[in-house]
Design brief:
two-stranded antiparallel sheet; mainly alpha; single chain
C-alpha cells in the first residue's frame, strides 16, 4: 500500500467516524457524561473538524487552486463549507443550536490542522 493510499484509507475511516458522531448528535444519543467537561463542545469542534481538514488535505495530495493568485487548499475549503451547512441546519433543529463560537472553533481547527498538514512531509507513491 502506498503512502497516498494510506492517507485515503485514513480519510475514509475518519469520515465514517465523523459521520457517526454527526448522526449521534442529531439523534440525541451522545452520552450526557461528556457535558461534565468544560467547553467540551468547542474543543471537539476544533479537533474533529481540524482532523477532517488534515486527513482530507493529505488524501487529496494537498491540492490547491488559485483565487486572485492566492493558493487556496481545496480539501479544507470543502470541510469549511460543510461546517457552514451544518451550522445552518442546526438553526432549524429544535434541540440543536447554531453557535458562532462553534463555527470559530471549526475555522481555527481547520486552519491549524491544515498548517500541520502543510508542514508534514508530502505524501508520495512509495
Amino acid at each position: 500500500m502506498t503512502t497516498h493510499q494510506r492517507w485515503v484509507f485514513a480519510f475514509w475511516v475518519y469520515l465514517g467516524i465523523l459521520f457517526s458522531i454527526f448522526i449521534a448528535a442529531y439523534l440525541q444519543i451522545i452520552p450526557t457524561e461528556i457535558s461534565r467537561f468544560p467547553y467540551y463542545d468547542t474543543v471537539l469542534h476544533f479537533l474533529l473538524l481540524g482532523l477532517a481538514a488534515y486527513f482530507s488535505h493529505q488524501a487529496l495530495r494537498k491540492r490547491k487552486f488559485r483565487i486572485l493568485n492566492i493558493p487556496v487548499p481545496l480539501a479544507p475549503l470543502i470541510v469549511f463549507l460543510f461546517c457552514i451547512v451544518d451550522e445552518m441546519i442546526q438553526s432549524y433543529v429544535p434541540y440543536r443550536n447554531a453557535d458562532w463560537v462553534d463555527l470559530a472553533a471549526d475555522i481555527c481547527g481547520i486552519i491549524s490542522f491544515t498548517i500541520l498538514a502543510e508542514i508534514f512531509p508530502a505524501s508520495n507513491n512509495k
